[in-house]
Sequence to fold (188 residues):
Amino acid sequence: MFHLRLLELESELLAKEASEKSFAELPPDCNSLLQFVEKEVGVQLGDKVPKGWRGWLAYKRENDQLIVCRGRGFLYGGLFGRIRAGLDVAYGLDTITEYERGFDVSPPQDLDHLLLNFGAGAKPQVFLWYGENLAPYKLVFMAAVADYPYEALSQAVVEACTWIMKRPKEVTLAEFLHQIESSQAEER
Fold:
């Protein structure tokens, strides 16, 4: 178990180093993966949605990053405006305005989210990270872009979104994983 945990930590460190190396211009294969996940999520920040909408949304950030998080509908444009998808926070309407004006919208600390980004190198890689509060990102998925990991990436996004929906709100992911490891060690 200890050896397995060390390998996991080492791979996460290597992923962080690789993801910090960015592309001057995103290669077409990486761009296709980014667009694929955007289409899989379906709703983008600022899209028109039905009244009372709650669900998942995605939006691009600088440096070719994609954020996937919970959203809800906000009345945008006054009394006779339309309902638009904003981040699921009290100031969600402001996130729509900032995004449409071209500002970089950071995911708020109190909203669990997924971050999809790419690492430049000899073999470009795609990374999916889970973020919560001020804790560092936790690596969820990593694959070589050349392997066309569309289905595996889609499954990783679904599993991570399921975790976000089902997780105990009083426990962070790190604490939850530690509890699982402790209970598995006790069973042995």
